Amino acid sequence: MFRAQISALVCGVGGFGALVAATTSNEWRVTTRASSVITATWVYQGLWMNCAGNALGSFQCRPHFTIFQVQGYIQACRGLMIAAVSLGFFGSIIALFGMKCTKVGGSEKAKAKIACLAGVVFILSGLCSMTGCSLYANKITTEFFDPLFIDQKYELGAALFIGWSGASLCIIGGVIFCFSIYDNNKTPRMGYAYNGATSVMSSRAKYHGGENVKTANPSKQFDKNAYV
């Protein structure tokens, strides 16, 4: 169970780090290589900034100045990724209290419940990130394969794959944490009964009382006829 919790914590914290990297990245979608060959420029767009670069090495980014001009799916992805990062952070803190190697959290039964709660939080974090990345990717693919769409077409950026990977790690870590409470309830506990201290005389009396041995009268052993 201890190794399972360590593996779950590594998956959860690693997934949380990947979600932070995906949320702050500016490579959610990039321009296609076919269009960038002629102009020698390419564009990266993220949830918070739009960046452009060229073959000479210059690279500039411009943030979204107002929230009201941002498209609806970008705002939805922002909310989902912020929720995923927040849940991943709290899940990591709760998981530390549910680990068997820590001295905080109370008894083993209480720690098992805390670990299960951390698993549920990690699973919710992974689902939020998976939904946000999938929503953004669906918008990109829909525009890319639409023959009537005449604006700039984009491809899937590296941030989407990082977000999917982080979501998968969070879900795997959460499932392991949830199953750790099942392993804790399944493990039998040894019980030791204390009967109290017994005296030496009582133990000897108990020992001699169990034997059906009849001893002769001591006075008859030393009778005068015994020496004749």
Which characteristics define this entry?
transmembrane; alpha+beta; elongated; membrane; 60% helix; five-stranded antiparallel sheet; 5 strands; 228 residues; Butyryl-CoA Dehydrogenase, subunit A, domain 3; transmembrane helix; 7 helices; PMP22/EMP/MP20/Claudin; cell junction
Structure description:
With about 230 residues, this protein is of the alpha+beta class. It starts with a helix and ends in a 7-residue tail after the last helix. It has a domain at about 1-25 and about 70-185: Butyryl-CoA Dehydrogenase, subunit A, domain 3 (Up-down Bundle), CATH 1.20.140. It has seven helices and five strands; from the N terminus they run H-E-H-E-E-E-H-H-E-H-H-H. Helix 3 runs antiparallel to helix 4 and helix 4 packs antiparallel against helix 5. The longest helix has about 35 residues, at about 110-145.
Helix content class: 55-70%
Strand arrangement across the biggest beta sheet = 4-3-2-1-5
Helical element count?
Answer: 7
Ends apart, CA distance between termini: 80 Å
The averaged pLDDT comes out at: 78
- How would you sum up the global shape? elongated
Q: Work out the radius of gyration.
A: 36 Å
Low-confidence stretches: 187-194, 197-207, 210-216
Order of helical and strand elements: HEHEEEHHEHHH
Structural class: alpha+beta
**What's the CATH architecture name of the domain at 1-27 and 71-186?**
Up-down Bundle
Q: CATH topology of the domain at 1-27 and 71-186, which one?
A: Butyryl-CoA Dehydrogenase, subunit A, domain 3
Largest beta-sheet details: 5 strands, antiparallel
Report the top-level CATH class of the domain at 1-27 and 71-186. Answer: Mainly Alpha
Total beta strands: 5
Proportion of strand residues: 5-15%
Main location: other
Function: Claudins function as major constituents of the tight junction complexes that regulate the permeability of epithelia.
Pfam families: PMP22_Claudin (PF00822)
Family: Belongs to the claudin family.
